TrEMBL record:
One of its GO terms (cellular component) is plasma membrane. The keyword Chaperone does not apply. CDD domains: ABC_6TM_ATM1_ABCB7. It is found in: Cell membrane. This is ATP-binding cassette, subfamily B. It comes from Paraburkholderia phenazinium. One of its GO terms (biological process) is intracellular iron ion homeostasis. It is a multi-pass membrane protein. The chain crosses the membrane at residues 38-59, 79-100, 164-187, 193-213, 275-297, 317-335.
Amino acid sequence: MRRSSASSELSPISTQPRNDWQTIISLLPYLATYRGRVVLALTCLIGAKVANLGVPIVMKRIVDSLASVRHLTALGRADHAPAIVLLGGVGLLVVAYAVVRLSTSLFTELREILFSKVTQSAVRQLALKVFRHLHGLSLRFHLERQTGGMSRDIERGTRGITQLISYSLYSILPTLVEVGLVLGFFIVKYEVYYAIVTFVALAVYITFTVKMTEWRTHFRRTMNDLDSRANSRAIDSLLNYETVKYFGNEEWEAQRYDENLQRYRSAAIKSQNSLSVLNFGQQAIIGAGLVFILWRATEGVMAGKLTLGDLVLINTFMLQLYIPLNFLGVVYRELKQSLTDMDRMFTLLSAPQEVPDTPDAPDLIVGGAQVRFEHVNFSYEPARQILHDVSFTIPAGTTTAVVGHSGSGKSTLARLMFRFYDLERGTGGAITIDGQDIRDVTQDSLRASIGIVPQDTVLFNDSIYYNIAYGRPSATRDEVIAAARAAHIHDFIEGLPNGYETPVGERGLKLSGGEKQRVAIARTILKNPPILLFDEATSALDSRSERAIQHELDLIARERTTLIIAHRLSTVVHAQQIIVMDKGRIVERGTHAELLTAGGLFAQMWALQQQRAAQVEDAPEVVVAGEGGR
C-alpha cells in the first residue's frame, strides 16, 4: 500500500521561494556550454566601457583647446594661432571624439551578437528540460496541479531567463564596470573627494533601492499567484465550456473570474504606489550627489585649480553614471521580478519524480506477454485503500476481463500496469510481464508494449490524421488509413470536407463520443502492441456500432494478451477468464458460463443488465413536443 507520506510530500510543490542566489546558480550550467562566447562578450563589454570613458576625456581636451583659442584671440593673436590650433589640435580631437563614440557602439553591438546565441540556447535547453520533467512526473502530480497556472509559470520563467541575462550583461555589469573606471579616474586625476562623494551616493542609492525592492517583492509574488489563479480559472472554465452552458452558469463563472481579477487589481495598485515612493527616493539621492560634486567642481574652476574642460568632464562623468544608474533601479526591480518568475519554474523542475526508473533499468523484453498481478495492494490516499490482495494471471495470448460496480478498482489496474503509480515494494505486491517486475524495467519500453483504448478519450487539438498517427508517428499514410478502416471510421472521415485533415478541436470536442472512441481504437490498432488494454472501449457507442467495433476488437486481440475492463457484461462473454471485483477485492473468477452457473455477483449483474436491455427495447419512442415534424 502507498505510504501515507507519498501524497503529502510529493503532490504539492513547495511554495517557499528559494534564495535568489540559488536561482542564479541553477541557471549557470546552461550558460557554461558557451564559455568562449561569454568570455568574448565580457571582453567587448569592458572595451565598450573603456571607450565610453574616453568620450568625456576627449571632449575635455576639445573644450580646453577652444578655450585657449579664445584666450589667444583676446590677447590680439587672432591672425594665425586659431587656424594653426584648429588644424593641428582641435580637428584631430574632433575626429578622435567620433572614433571613440563609434568604438563604444561597435563593442556594444559585438557583445550583443556574441551573447544572443548564449541567451536563446539557455532558454531552449531549460524550457525543454522542464517540459520533459513534467512529462516524467506522476499522474498524482498532474491531477493535483492546474494546467493553466503551470503553463503561465513556464512562460514567465523562460521570459525571466532572457530578462535576467539581458539586464545583468547589458545594464548592471556595464554600470559597475563604468563606476569602477570613473572612481579610479577621479582618484588618479582629481581629488579623492569626488570619488568619495560618488561612492557614498552610489552606496546609498543601491542600498535604498535594494531595501525598497525587497519590501516590494511580496507584492509581485502576490500578483504572480493571483495572475496564475485567474488564468487557471479562465482556462478551466473555457475547457468545460459545454458544462457551463448546460447549467447556465456563465455569470457565475464570470463572477468567480472577476473575484481573482479584483484581488490582482488591489495587489497591482499597491505595487504601483510603492514604485512611486521608490522612484522619488532614488531621484532625491541622485540630486544630492550631483549638488555636492558640481559645487566642488565649480569652486575649483573659480579658484583656477580646474579648467572649464574639467568641469565639463566631471559633469559628463556624473551624467554617464547617474543616467544608467537611474535606470538601474528599474533594472533591479525587473531583475527581482525575473528571479521570482524563474523561481517558480525551477521549483517545477525540482519536483520529485514519484515514479522513477531504477538506475540502469533494462528494457522490457516481451516474449509471450504473460501478465501477472501478485498480491497487489494499493491506495491513492492513506485513508482509503483501493485494492486488497489482488492476484490473477493473464496467460499469454489470452483475454481476461475485469468487471464490477463503479469504484471497485477496475481502472486502477490499468493505471498500475502503465506505471502511472508504483506499488510499494514489500507490502504492495508486484505486477510482472513474462516474469519481469515492471518496476525494474524502463517506463518507455513498458508503455511501448501496451496499447490502450480508454473510456474517456481526449484528443489533441489537431487533425484527425495527427490523432490517429499519434499511435505510431513513424507510420505511413497507408498504414494510418488502414487503421482507420479497421476501426470503422474511414468512411466517416472521407465524408468530411477536409477528410483526414479535419481539425478535432480542443480535446476533440468537435467529434461525438463514439467518433472519438473510434479514433482511439484506430491509433491503438496502429500502435500494434503485444499487450492490449480496453477500458470501457465501446462505452460511447450505440448498439450497432458496438457490435461492429467489438468484432474488430476481437480480431486485433487475437493472439495478443488482452485485459478488458468493462461495465457492459455483454462485451466480455468471449473472454477466457472473467474477474469479478467488489470494493477492491476479487470475489469471483471463471468463464462467462461458469459465473452464471455459480449464481453469484456476476450472475446478478448479468440478470440486471439483461432486464434493463429488455426494458429499453420495449420502451415506446418518446416524441418531444414541438419536435414531431423532424
